[in-house]
Amino acid sequence: MYHSYMLKNIIKRYASINGMNKHMKSLVYAKKLDNFNANTQFISFSGPGTIDFVNGMVTTKLNEKFVKKNLTSLAVDDEDYEPPQTIKDLQNIAMSNHVAKELIDEYKFNANNMDEMDIRRRSLYDEQVEAYGNLKGQLTALLSSQSKVTTLMRLYTPLNTQQENIIVEVPKQQLNEDEKDHDVLAILEKHKKFKRNVKMIQDVQNDDDLGFDVWDVCFEGKLERSDMELETLSYILEDNKMNYVFNKKVHIDAHFKADDIIAVYFDDVLYNGSLLNDESHKVYYKYKVLVKKEKSHYKDFIHSFYNEVLNEDSVKEMKQIEQSFGLFDLCDIRPGSMLPFDLNLDYVPNSLSFDKGCYIGQELTTRMYSTDKITKRGVPIEIINSGNGIDPQVGWEVYTDDEIRVIEDSSENFNNVFGNSNRFIKKRKKPLGKLIIKNDETKVRLITLKTKYIDEIFVSENKTMKFYLAPSKEEIKVKGLDFEKCKIDINIKTPYWINEYLEE
């Protein structure tokens, strides 16, 4: 869903750059995270049936249910299978792109020695390219039976393992009494009872044998011709072996010493957000890296040709991208309070699948999507004023005093002599959404907003509408507040997914 627009954006960005063919990046920062003060924890699942177990709970498709066949290709397990179109595209790109040349050389050298089932065990399925081989991790969600988001998760696949193994990163929860049904560890333990062959380690980061350190690492680059070619190629990879080689080359070997790390997670959304940042030609490659404990310095696991250059402007720009597009973290959501569409997970690559079959909360989620019943989406905001010392809280409601203009449907106006005119919906003091994310440290603010107002702002391009936050009517009544004095003006910012939304 997301790649069609991003590909156009990449081409547009490249058209404005006179870049070299050589792939150039610099290391912006590498920070070892303090495990004691961390707000997330890591859980390991391993053993036969691990992939099926995780697949049955999360919103991401981790298993291909069938082997595709057609008149022009062979099954993935046929001997001497090669993806002819992909190889041809690589050969053409390799004439001027050294990374593509290394890819095709590595594929030709190793393809016959690579085992399909081994790739399926050691990597994630990538639904967008319809192939296994994803080594860059995955953002996904665990839903309740009512299709509300219980928690967001990051999935990691260890590089050097001979068995099915997925490491799951989840928030450390401090739940209220009414939130006990959203206890992630309890949910995972409950479902693991049905998978006796799956081994679960709750705090694998501090395990004596399997423990690791966690690092935040970010590289900065410019979108050069070689990047554009590789991005284009990555969207048409439909071969497990090729996709595995591609991911290992681009996300592992290009940055890290593979023998010294356990797994990585690549922030796709920040990367795509930097592509949309027209004020700069910089792109950001942000990773969360699980590193073997004996490695105490970034030079122990990052290639020596990367020297850390702490560029304050780059760090500031990344924070602005996160604020502008409302890029939330795992711990920013309140368990069980929002739908996956409130967080726009269907616009995060591979995060939300609609044809993977049964998982917790799948039925309502798929029905809402397939019947076009998505009535609200999350959009980023900026708080314009917070006078009277009032600080808006999660759960405050969104209002407008402006009228929204609606074009009458032609079928409704067939016998109406004024059928081509516009009408205005009368303003009503009814909430249009809620404040669902408020992170005071990152300044990320996200509200849900009815889609008809999103259409009015971004489709009809009505930039004059004004919105504000206020406590719920129940809170105002209980606390005896003055509604008018509690109003906080907000500015609706452009979400990163809006162009894909408009295309639809």
Automatic annotation (TrEMBL):
GO terms for biological process: iron-sulfur cluster assembly. It comes from the Eukaryota. Belongs to the GcvT family. CAF17/IBA57 subfamily. It is found in: Mitochondrion matrix. Its main location: mitochondrion. Coiled coil: none annotated. One of its GO terms (cellular component) is mitochondrial matrix. This is Uncharacterized protein. InterPro entries: YgfZ/GCV_T_CS, YgfZ/GcvT. Gene3D superfamilies: 2.40.30.160. Signal peptide: none annotated.
